[in-house]
């Protein structure tokens, strides 16, 4: 049965309020009403009327009212000058004077940053007179106002007033005017499995219909015929897929035989949906997939905490999640509510939920860090009370990272932390406590940031590697960037541990038994053997001198091992839902080996162009790539964009031999494949960040790279086989361990669809 969720309750929202106002009587300020459709589709055009009626004080000359929306939205930018264009806004009053309209994308206070202000000029309004604002006025030819790309249970129209022209805008009391935004037509169906379970161990199959923006949609009804590569207890032969919320979970499935399970769904028209691989193997550990970093409308984001937890479990099919709101916006009402919800949602063995928050200190004093508690009831140690008016617990604040470490050590509830890159990036040079700091986040909706891991190698920072979404739309585990400032699809972390419980997940985090991806669930098994033996440490011996250790001759992802000899043999097994382009075996920042799934003789007439990188590490890291590729003396027989996650972003074949683009990268990659008619083609590539020209026939297995400055910014051209690439890869290679310092051994996987995966390093050392 579909769950119903309402907008976020006002008392849950952290926000600044003026303490000096004209008075406490709500009748002083007037009232507002909203007319228009209550339920709309994403990216549709609509018209809304906000009618404001003045209160006891009327509205003074040069006074104003303001309609505010949440910062995080990619709805159409309002405008007041072109009546033919989208998002046109008008206003009229029943009184004297004239109205002036001003739209500002950053005109208000967080979280109500997007503002439309209507100023009263040349006269005043008496009590009971009205102002009517038409948002999406179609009377002059405009199509209306465009909705956002994401589903929203409560797109709020927040009305403020400055009735005495003081510049102080007071929110109308009990003002919760909102609409519901729902998904559009089905664009694709997904079948989601985990990646590693043991024989007889329960698992589930998730099926979802998504619109073109990645929202679950009820417009994808199908009858699927089911087949599988292994016998599965509980798997039906036919699935009538018609859920009201666009997603369906088939629980309590089991495989009794070892092998690789792939489930195929075929509908009546012949369309085929294939799951990724699930390895069934006798082993001590399994794989549990999670997104532990995102937030909702109680702070800067959208949708409610209740919606978020349901989405994580039943729409993204996660095994593990947490909620990570900016601490300076978490009021005590929401903190208490969050702890109640995480306790209720946590279901050992099925769905692990960790309570926590994002410590959001400025980069200068430590930068963004995620804090996760093993259980509820812990204190929140905010970086400040910037948007929390209640100062009763201000003594708990930790204004810098060093203070946060100290307070968490004093806190009775056990905690672990991630360093991450969001608007603010974590400053790992400011301070570091490995007894708390367990991992770094190398990918999120903000982009890809390998540097936050590799910066720590010279300092012997032995961190695990994770990927999360940092989603602000209530969609952990399946976070699309839409048409906003986020440039990438959100990531996922695989926790390699014996059980899906808080104990099991904490153990995986503490021991760095994690790997991350830019979104897909990929099976990765990385192991090392060293016949001369070594000592494996449960905790980092550099900071925990009495750390538990045991003698071993092999180890796995994330382990810290002091070798007796100087050599280890690395073995790797990868099974992906799409083709594998390459795997890099790395020691620190050095690439020891690049293995591809094809050789020179496999190359065909497919060329791949990718652009990637960022401007710099901070908030304005977005790199705008504008370019054109001309295939001279050739023709494009087939064209396929890569990571074109915003379908409104230009990345298009023009004519028979050209491609143009205007795209954004934030550390991640984007581009296209083109299958050419012949090999006698010259590639002439012109971009806003540099140009290059090369002969297609001269391209071999190794990519051609044009460096473009910035932060790891480059354009890459490579030749690939015409057919889809293999989805499995194994390798074995020897690694020499340095006599001094650490030798962090890790891998980076690049997939055919533009996604990537990374493992936590194995930290070998001999000193």
Write the layout of secondary structure elements.
Elements: E1 31-35, E2 39-41, E3 45-46, E4 48-53, E5 64-69, E6 89-93, E7 98-104, E8 114-121, E9 130-135, E10 145-146, E11 152-162, E12 170-171, E13 177-182, E14 188-192, E15 196-197, E16 203-210, E17 222-228, E18 238-241, E19 247-253, E20 259-261, E21 263-266, E22 272-274, E23 278-280, E24 286-291, H1 305-314, E25 320-322, H2 332-345, E26 352-354, E27 356-360, E28 368-373, H3 401-410, E29 415-419, E30 437-444, E31 447-448, H4 451-454, E32 464-467, E33 492-497, H5 502-510, E34 514-517, E35 523-537, E36 549-556, E37 560-563, E38 567-575, E39 580-587, E40 590-596, E41 606-614, E42 623-632, E43 636-642, E44 651-654, E45 658-665, E46 669-676, E47 682-687, E48 690-695, E49 704-707, E50 711-720, E51 728-736, E52 742-751, E53 756-759, E54 762-765
Parallel strand pairs: 2-13, 15-23, 24-25, 25-26, 29-30, 30-32, 37-54
Antiparallel strand pairs: 1-4, 3-10, 4-9, 5-8, 5-11, 6-9, 7-8, 11-12, 11-13, 14-16, 16-19, 17-18, 17-21, 20-23, 21-22, 24-33, 27-28, 28-29, 30-31, 33-34, 34-53, 35-36, 35-37, 35-38, 38-51, 39-40, 39-52, 41-46, 41-50, 42-45, 42-47, 43-46, 44-45, 47-48, 49-50, 52-53, 52-54
């Amino acid at each position: 049965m579909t769950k119903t969720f309402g907008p976020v309750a006002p008392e849950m929202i952290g926000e600044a309020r003026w303490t000096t106002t004209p008075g406490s009587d709500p009748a002083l300020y007037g009232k507002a009403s909203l007319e228009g459709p209550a339920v709309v589709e994403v990216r549709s055009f609509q018209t809304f009327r906000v009618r404001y009626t003045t209160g006891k004080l009327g509205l003074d000359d040069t006074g104003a009212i303001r309609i505010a929306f949440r910062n995080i939205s990619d709805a159409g930018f309002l405008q007041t000058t072109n009546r033919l264009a989208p998002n046109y806004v008008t206003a009229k009053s029943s009184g004297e004077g004239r109205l002036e309209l001003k739209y500002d994308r950053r005109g208000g206070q967080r979280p109500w940053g997007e503002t439309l202000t209507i100023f009263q000029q040349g006269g005043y309004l008496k009590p009971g007179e009205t102002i009517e604002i038409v948002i999406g006025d179609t009377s002059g030819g405009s199509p209306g106002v465009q909705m956002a790309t994401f589903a929203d249970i409560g797109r709020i129209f927040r009305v403020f007033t400055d009735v005495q022209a003081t510049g102080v805008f007071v929110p109308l009391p009990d003002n919760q005017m909102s609409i519901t935004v729902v998904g559009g037509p089905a664009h694709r169906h997904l079948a989601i499995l985990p990646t590693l379970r043991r024989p007889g161990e329960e698992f589930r199959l998730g099926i979802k219909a998504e619109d073109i923006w990645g929202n679950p949609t009820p417009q994808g009804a199908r009858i699927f015929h089911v087949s599988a590569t292994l016998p599965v207890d509980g798997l039906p032969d036919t699935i009538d897929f018609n859920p009201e919320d666009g997603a369906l979970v088939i629980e309590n499935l089991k495989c009794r035989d070892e092998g690789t399970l792939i489930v195929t769904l075929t509908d009546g028209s012949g369309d085929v949906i294939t799951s990724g691989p699930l390895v069934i193997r006798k082993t001590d550990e399994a794989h549990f997939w999670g997104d532990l970093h995102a937030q909702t409308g109680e702070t800067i984001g959208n949708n409610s905490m209740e919606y978020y937890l349901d989405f994580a479990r039943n729409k993204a099919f996660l095994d593990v999640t947490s909620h990570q709101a900016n601490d300076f916006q978490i009021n005590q009402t929401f903190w208490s509510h969050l702890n109640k919800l995480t306790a209720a949602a946590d279901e050992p063995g099925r769905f692990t939920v960790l309570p926590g928050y994002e410590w959001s200190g400025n980069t200068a004093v430590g930068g963004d860090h995620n804090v996760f508690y093993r259980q509820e009831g812990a204190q929140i140690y905010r970086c400040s009370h910037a948007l929390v008016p209640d100062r009763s617990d201000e003594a708990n604040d930790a204004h810098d990272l060093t203070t946060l470490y100290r307070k968490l050590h004093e806190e009775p509830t056990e905690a672990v932390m991630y360093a991450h890159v969001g608007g603010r990036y974590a400053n790992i040079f400011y301070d570091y406590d490995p007894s708390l700091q367990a991992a770094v986040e190398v990918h999120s909706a903000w982009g890809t940031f390998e540097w936050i891991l590799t910066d720590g190698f010279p300092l012997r920072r032995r961190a695990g590697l994770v990927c999360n979404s940092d989603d602000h739309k209530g969609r952990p585990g399946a976070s699309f960037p839409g048409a906003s400032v986020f440039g990438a699809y959100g990531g996922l972390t695989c926790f390699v541990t014996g059980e899906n419980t808080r104990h099991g997940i904490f153990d995986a985090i503490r021991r760095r038994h994690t790997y991350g991806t830019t979104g897909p669930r990929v099976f990765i098994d990385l192991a090392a053997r060293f016949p001369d033996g070594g000592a494996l440490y449960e905790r980092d011996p550099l900071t925990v001198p009495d750390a538990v250790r045991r003698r071993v001759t092999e180890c796995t992802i994330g382990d810290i091992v002091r070798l007796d000899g100087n050599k280890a043999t690395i073995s790797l097994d990868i099974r992906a839902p799409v083709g594998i382009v390459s795997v890099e075996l790395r020691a620190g920042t050095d690439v020891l080996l690049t293995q591809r799934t094809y050789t020179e003789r496999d190359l065909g007439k497919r060329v791949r162009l990718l652009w990637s990188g960022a401007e710099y590490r901070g908030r304005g890291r977005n790199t705008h790539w504008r370019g054109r590729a001309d295939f001279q003396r050739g023709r494009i027989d087939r064209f396929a964009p890569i990571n074109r996650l915003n379908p409104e972003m230009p990345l298009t074949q023009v004519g028979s031999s050209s491609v143009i683009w205007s795209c954004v990268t934030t550390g991640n990659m984007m581009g296209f494949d083109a299958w050419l008619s012949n090999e006698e083609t010259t590639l002439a590539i012109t971009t806003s960040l540099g140009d290059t020209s090369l002969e297609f026939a001269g391209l071999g297995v190794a990519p051609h790279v044009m460096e473009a400055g910035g932060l790891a910014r480059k354009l890459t051209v490579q030749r690939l086989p015409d057919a889809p690439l293999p989805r499995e890869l194994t390798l074995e290679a020897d690694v020499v361990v340095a006599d001094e310092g650490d030798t962090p051994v890790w891998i980076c996987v690049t997939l055919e669809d533009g996604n990537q995966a990374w493992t936590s390093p194995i930290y070998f050392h001999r000193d």
